[in-house]
Amino acid sequence: MDFNFFNWIRMGVKDSVLLGVTDAVNTMGMPPEESSRDRILSFLQEETQSTQRRRIASVAPSTTGQRKLGRSISDIHATKEAG
Description:
The structure is a single chain. The chain is mostly helical. Helix content is about 70%, strand content about 0%. It contains 3 helices and no strands. It has helices at about 5-30, 35-60, 75-80. The longest helix has 24 residues, at about 5-30. The relative contact order is 0.06. The model has no long low-confidence stretch (mean pLDDT about 75).
């Protein structure tokens, strides 16, 4: 399982905001027109779907080889000998 600390924080903040909106709507009530409720629900559903698409798109495919993070000792020696 891949754990990303910043994604965990981001999702926690998003959940807290959504729960806060839900609590506010429950406390204050909805406006008399029903269409605003439908707009809020459709917005939240679209946001959730786009977040899932971004999360899927951000997952990099696994590679079979190792990544080279810097120069090797032989690269350093070759640079010193050439210069």
